[in-house]
Amino acid sequence: MVNITADVPPPKMGDVPLVTAVHNSLISPPTINNSLLSSDWAVKPAEKAKYDQLFESLQPHNGMISGNKVKGVLMDSKLPVDTLGKIWDLADMDKDGMLDRHEFMVAMHLVYKALEKYTIPNTLPPELMPPSKRKDSVQAATLPGAVPVLPNLVMGIDGTKPAIPPLPVAPWIVTAEDKTKYDVLFQQTDIDKDGYVSGLEIKDVFLRSGVPQAVLAHIWTLCDIKQSGKLNSEQFALSMWLINQKLQGIDPPPSLTPEMVPPSFRTKPPVDGVIENNSAPYSNPELDMITKDIEELGREKHILETDIAQKEADIKIKNGEIKSLQSELDTLAATLKQLENQKGEAQKRLNDLKGQKSSIEKELNDIRLELEEEQVQVDNLRQQAEEQEQSLKSQEDELSSKKQELEGLKQEEAKLEHQQKDSREQLDNLTKNLQDTQLQISQAKAKITHLQEQHRQMKDAVSTYEAAISSGDAATVSEASLHIKPEFRDPEYSRIAMVNGGSPVEHNKRFIGNEKDPFSGLNGPADSGGSDFGGEDMFHNGEALQITFCHWKY
């Protein structure tokens, strides 16, 4: 071990044999045994589900769990404090005093491995690193601090590198079509046109998606790979893709998978070299022995470095514990002094309270006496209130009775008003009928007077006609008597007039003006004297004529 850093001359390799050209041959580098350096640290799906369930049970805030919550879980494992401190240092990758989902999974996985008697490594195994932070598989296999094993042996004769097949590169999960669409939105969001969008610039775009703020914060953390507080166009496109996945019901992963890492953040594979000169492998016993010695020295160095790192971690933890205990001691001393001061103040306060107690007891007795007097007054007032309440109740009953009586009187009044209205209408009808009747009586009286006058005139005319008939002298009949036209309203009179072809007056005119007596044939042939009224005079007493006129009248 003491010669590991000593300068020694280059070993004798012997003569290099001549080799013939062999096309496309490769020289494999010596293999390093990693069986003593690491175990299978990969997290199985069942274990990951268990860790996620435990993470959710601690009620994370914005996808993070504080150190106080994690402390209780870690202490329940009963592992040594130094081991738990190392686990915390490995898990808290960003050193913010809190663990996200992936960091919590790493911490719990290391705890379970420690309980299974695995040695906690000084650096986080690549299997437990977030996908975005994992190194190339070739670099991860290199021993920290190991001496390079004769790199010239893996070179060609002319110094060119052998052809190494390139590592497969996973295609980016964001398609070219989506990238183009998100680039348009990126250009609109990038206000200062610096090629990056800050949290302030992207805030409105994120909130308009409707995704919960806790999920948006987790998406920002995933996409801000370098923790720079801003995103380029590829990171922005990845964040919008994760938001769309969440809108479709797919939660963002705890960490970025290899296919999610933007192309500009992926580790570029080494440039492949092609062996153009032909070479053939050869074996040298001295070289093999030196190689084995170097490997052994490398392992011893690694063990020593691991032991040193372990001791340094133990010292660091012990120093932290001492510092914590000293701080706790100082706190307890200050607390003790504060409690002593509080004790003196409490004693002083107690003495004051005793004096206050005496005065309060005296005031209490005075108040008790006043209370008794007030109680008596309250009882009297309560009794008066009850009496007034009873009186008020009787008055309310009487008022209710009077209201009912008043309601009955109002109904009776309305009924009488209705009857009065009906009686008034009947009286108006009777008054109108009486007036109509009186008018009819007046008209009847006038008509009777008129008829009496006509009757008198007709009676005088009849007398004149009878006298003329008796004397046989028609000249005694005045012209006015011949033009008397009485009003005849008897339906029978109208019927006779229609039968005779005219009114009775016209018939009389024809009778008077007729040259030949129409009644000459009633009493036989005419007498010798040629008189048309020979024989018995049928109008000698005027009764027939009177009867005829009366019939016409009525």
From TrEMBL:
<dbReference type="InterPro" id="IPR002048">
    <property type="entry name" value="EF_hand_dom"/>
</dbReference>
<feature type="region of interest" description="Disordered">
    <location>
        <begin position="381"/>
        <end position="405"/>
    </location>
</feature>
<feature type="domain" description="EF-hand">
    <location>
        <begin position="79"/>
        <end position="114"/>
    </location>
</feature>
<dbReference type="GO" id="GO:0045296">
    <property type="term" value="F:cadherin binding"/>
</dbReference>
<feature type="domain" description="EH">
    <location>
        <begin position="47"/>
        <end position="135"/>
    </location>
</feature>
<dbReference type="GO" id="GO:0005509">
    <property type="term" value="F:calcium ion binding"/>
</dbReference>
<dbReference type="Pfam" id="PF12763">
    <property type="entry name" value="EH"/>
</dbReference>
<feature type="domain" description="EH">
    <location>
        <begin position="178"/>
        <end position="267"/>
    </location>
</feature>
<dbReference type="GO" id="GO:0030132">
    <property type="term" value="C:clathrin coat of coated pit"/>
</dbReference>
<dbReference type="InterPro" id="IPR000261">
    <property type="entry name" value="EH_dom"/>
</dbReference>
<protein>
    <recommendedName>
        <fullName>Epidermal growth factor receptor substrate 15-like 1</fullName>
    </recommendedName>
</protein>
<feature type="domain" description="EF-hand">
    <location>
        <begin position="177"/>
        <end position="212"/>
    </location>
</feature>
<feature type="compositionally biased region" description="Basic and acidic residues">
    <location>
        <begin position="394"/>
        <end position="405"/>
    </location>
</feature>
<dbReference type="GO" id="GO:0016197">
    <property type="term" value="P:endosomal transport"/>
</dbReference>
<dbReference type="GO" id="GO:0006897">
    <property type="term" value="P:endocytosis"/>
</dbReference>
<dbReference type="InterPro" id="IPR018247">
    <property type="entry name" value="EF_Hand_1_Ca_BS"/>
</dbReference>
<keyword id="KW-0106">Calcium</keyword>
<dbReference type="InterPro" id="IPR011992">
    <property type="entry name" value="EF-hand-dom_pair"/>
</dbReference>
